Amino acid sequence: HLYKVWKTRCRRSGMPREEVEALFSRMDKDVAIISEERLGDLVETSGFEAPILYWRGLVFGAWMTRKKAR
Predict the structure, then answer these.
(1) Burial of residue 59 (number of CB atoms within 10 Å: 0-12, 13-18, 19+)
(2) Strands 52-56 and 61-64
């Protein structure tokens, strides 16, 4: 699992275990992980054009879209 690798990297970089656990606890609570397909469905059913991916990091991505013309 990617979280396990990410946690290990944080610990090996010197982050105290308590901080690592607090960070991932917040992420589990505050970050919604959805598929690109689900993101596209949500965006398009909300009145926007299909999203276009313009950046991807390890676990994050950024998309752009426009409001559909009426």
Answers:
(1) exposed
(2) antiparallel
Task: Give bridge partners of residue 55 from the DSSP assignment.
Answer: 62
64 three-class SS: strand
What CA–CA distance (Å, rounded) separates 17 from 21?
A: 6
Measured distance CA(34)–CA(43) in Å, rounded:
12
- Phi/psi at 29 (nearest 5 deg)? -85, -35
Between CA 12 and CA 1 the distance in angstroms is 17
Q: In sequence order, which residues have a C-beta less than 8 Å from that of residue 69 and are 6 or more positions away?
A: none
Residue that has been written with the tokens 């690798």 in this structure: 5
- pLDDT, mean of each 10-residue run, the chain (70 residues): 87 96 91 90 96 88 93
Are the C-beta atoms of residues 58 and 6 closer than 8 Å to each other?
Answer: yes
